[in-house]
Amino acid sequence: MTDKRRSSLALVSLLAIALFIGSCSSRAPVKVVKTGPKPVVTERPIIATITPDERDIGFLYKKAEKLYSQGKFQDAAATYIKFIKLATPGSRIADNAYFKIGMSWFELARYRDALYYFSMVVDKFPDSEVHTEALINSGVCHYHLNNYKEAEDIFKIALDRISSPGHKAYIFFYRAKMADSVGDFDRAVDLYIRGDMFADNEKLVNTTRSKVGRILHNFLGEKDLVKITERYKKQWPAQIAYKELINIYKRSGDNSLLEDTETRYLEEFPPPKKVSFFGASDKEDYKPLTPKIGAVLPLSGGGSKAGREILQGIQLAFNTFRELIDEKSIQPIIRDSMSDPDSAENALETLGKNRDTIAVIGPAFSDAFQRSAKVADKYLLPIFSPSATADGLASLSDRLFRNAMTNSLEVKKIVDLAVGKMGHKKFAIIFPNDKYGKDVSALFIREVTKAGGSVVAAEAYETNQTDFGAQIRGIGGFPDDELRRKILNVARRNPGRSSKTINNILQGLNAGSLSTPVIDSYGSWPLTSKNFRPGLLFEYDAIFIPGMYDKVGLILPELAFYNVKGIKKFASKKAHNPKLLSLADKYTEGVIFVDGFYKKSDLTHVKSFVRNYRLAFREEPTLLSAQSYDAARMVLSGLAHGVASRREMTEYLSNLKFFEGVSGMTSMGPDGDSRKSVTYLVVNDGKIVELPRPESASVISADDTAQTDEYRRYE
């Protein structure tokens, strides 16, 4: 394990000078040692006599680090112990010394001794940067000591605290090994597969798949194998299960089932085309020795701000796969699209011609991404945009993918909440009269109708507009003076009638209208122009206001002025900006909107991303940086899972399921668009906060049964 403080400094300094890959070293994954011999049970190590030369604690620590790096673990442990004896209370590196002692004994298979020192870190240094690794390793020690219950309890605690996918992979791996060792093979297979999903190195992937193959071959029967083919359709566990089923039917002579199983197997896992040296399949099946990942981003021109945010997300993702990048000699290639679709297309052409390019991240904007379809098909190149939002683009080619909150995804999630969970049935819309506004409002009407609701009014405004009175009147709004006149006219024509009767008369007169004036409260009778409070009853119970925060911030106060009150208000992700609160102040209270990323999330992996992003770039992460971070990690995860060609990368991304990203739990749909969870936000007490996640807002369809408790937390 490297010293965490040095890692943090490296993260800041080296990322500042690297164009693409942050050369900083992030915290190394938890060191995992193969099962060794039974641990030696010994007394606590005795502190050696301290010589005068060794009173320099700095010298002692450096000596211990050198011994550890040389693999002289027993000598290293003894020297770390001397350092701890001499170090002043509260030493800033005492936690790391205790941790390294534990790692030294761990390497020597002295798991009981290792457990003692890992537990010291956990108990004495709760704020240490090696606290989580110590916690995980104490669970691994319990595993080696056959204390499975203690190990399971520790692993469950650690899962709630860690952010590193690599660490999670090892936890699932050891939980699977425990289930495997006690003969709970169904659970073992499930845990091995979950570990594979998080694995960030090829060695662990291969070991995990080998163990799953062993269980399927030796311990699972026909019915269990069939379930796996159905549950993990087109994924590697199904491929193993199909092969076992084929062998079973061959041995039993059941030719009907054999033929049916072989047909389904070939449909889900077609054999690769024969590679020719000059044909198209050569480009797709070619396996470069030094794979390159391209990125086409607007680093100059009008979209340069977005391009910079996307690039920084990619840089941070590459930093989390340093070991893989070094092992496979993965090289990034950056191309500036100059915020121009033609330049983006030319850059994609150049990357496509380079056979070593295994995938491209980008382009950033929808017009350029649309053009990338023909390049993807021409060069059989998987192209993955982290930010293009226009609907339907990813379906233009089987090799186009997207990790973005599209307009349709956003609208579906709003309707899921508004209709499905909150029970609203009738809506009004006030939307900008531009492409985005028209598209989103049309999608909203379609989704509400599909959900059994209706949109009873829709008003458009021009993008340069600052007064929205006409639009609000169009959805039934009236200012106080008009309401008072309407109510007083009816009251004077019906002297002696009660307020309830007057309201009934008003409702009859306004039947079929979008709103009805009513007496909300009054002080005395008869009514005068000043002794009652007017109100409105509406034919709808919620309003959808897509648009930028600056327009929404002007519309909200005007809604109140025109007495559109007591109506739930929903906005789009474009309203998620702190400036909305200063523009509309108290009128923002209760407004709900969705977003694909929430930097104040309590999720551990999101908090870790936000912290590392701030440390590396000295600014706040955005939705674009979060989406690009996840997109780059998905591509790198493919390489960690053995992807070696364009064809394999296309297949890997096509079948991606339950990827735990900072921009949401993600599965790839058949159209190349990601199926993502979202964050629901609400303005509460003048602050934008996360709305408790509703039960019905799930990113996973009912058909995707592979999701388990650990994943449901992120739906």
UniProtKB/TrEMBL annotation:
Pfam families: Peripla_BP_6 (PF13458), TPR_16 (PF13432)
Domain called Leucine-binding protein: residue spans: 292-473, 569-671
Keyword Disulfide bond among UniProt keywords: no
Statement: the UniProt record of this protein carries the keyword S-adenosyl-L-methionine: no
Keywords: Signal
Signal sequence bounds: none
Coiled coil: none
PANTHER family, sorted: LEUCINE-SPECIFIC-BINDING PROTEIN, PERIPLASMIC BINDING PROTEIN OF ABC TRANSPORTER FOR NATURAL AMINO ACIDS
Protein name per its UniProtKB record: Leucine-binding protein domain-containing protein
Lineage start: unclassified sequences, metagenomes, ecological metagenomes
